[in-house]
Amino acid sequence: MATNPTFQSQLRALTRAASDLCQPDGDGAVRCVACAHRCRLMEGAQGICGMRFAENGALRVPFGYVSSLACDPIEKKPLYHFLPGSEVVSFGMLGCNLRCGFCQNWTISQAGRDETAVAFPQRIEAAEIVRQARRLAAPAIASTYNEPLISTEWSLDIFRRARAEGIRTCYVSNGFASPEALDLLEPWLDAINIDLKCFTDVGYRKLGGRLQPVLDTIRRLVERGIWVEATTLVVPGFNDSPEELADCAEFLASVSPDLPWHVSAFHADYQWHEGPSRTPVATIERAVQAGYGAGLRYVYAGNLAGDAHGSTRCPGCGAALVTRRGFQVRANEVVNGGCPLCGVAIAGVWQ
Length: 351
Ligand code: SF4
Hints:
By secondary structure, the protein is of the alpha/beta class. The chain folds into three domains: about 15-60, no CATH class; about 65-310, Aldolase class I (TIM Barrel, Alpha-Beta Barrel), CATH 3.20.20; about 310-350, no CATH class. It is about 25% helix and about 25% strand. The strands form five sheets. The protein has an eight-stranded mixed β-sheet. Strands 1-6-5 form a three-stranded antiparallel β-sheet. Strands 2-3-4 form a three-stranded antiparallel β-sheet, with no helix packed on it. It is globular and about 65 Å long. The N and C termini lie far apart (about 45 Å). The structure holds iron/sulfur cluster (SF4). Iron/sulfur cluster binds next to loops.
């Protein structure tokens, strides 16, 4: 963990005592149940995420700041079947419960853990984030950029206000959640993109997590009717074998063939410099075919030059219904949630 005392005291000031997602755990300890790590914290200790800590017998949790606040195309999350073409007010905080060597947002996710990850919190009121969404006429707000599960209390404060204004709510998450966090979050969440980082427990343990909680989160949120899309960053030498990509696809198809799967090309970043510095296009193509081969109806390629596999096609007649160039929607032909040519329903939230 970082030892910069100024940064740590700044972060500690931007917290509040948790009333949910914590339990007394004997001998003066508290247990944080915000994610599947379920950290047991003695007085003064901080959790694996480095952002939640025990103080005076209470669990202090991040609150009242952002590290980044921007208005993004919703396609950038990526969410392709949830209000396509919309702008989403997006906020992030600091820290993560995993430590992926290939993280592409590491300056904020590893802040507090890695001295070279330099990002700063800016104090803000939840109401101000919602006001910005209204001012920009954005139909949704997303908790994104870092891992939102480690600050669900803050997201909920924003989401409750957003819902009161008719604004939808989204998470972009690694899915390493606890059932308690999902119980708290689900009534206030409309859509989520979950990273499925690989399909082996050994792989997840290299990143500081475990596979099963992520699979449980994906299945549970689909069953609860929350709109779910999944993303796999295909990292050469880590998760790019045909077997592992097929395993990811088969699991997602078993949850729902309507669950969109985004397979994204990796570029070397942060601490991951093994093997090729970019995912070969042929590997992404293979992942896309693995998705369709497993029975998924919507598979998208991300982080590639060009727009191959970027458009939404009707699974009935093959017509291009939502045409995209990069993150921009060029045309959206979906009518009343269906294909205007053959009438097949297109899964998603369209208005
Ligand atoms: S959010 Fe997860 S990693 Fe952080 S303290 Fe809680 S259980 Fe531990």
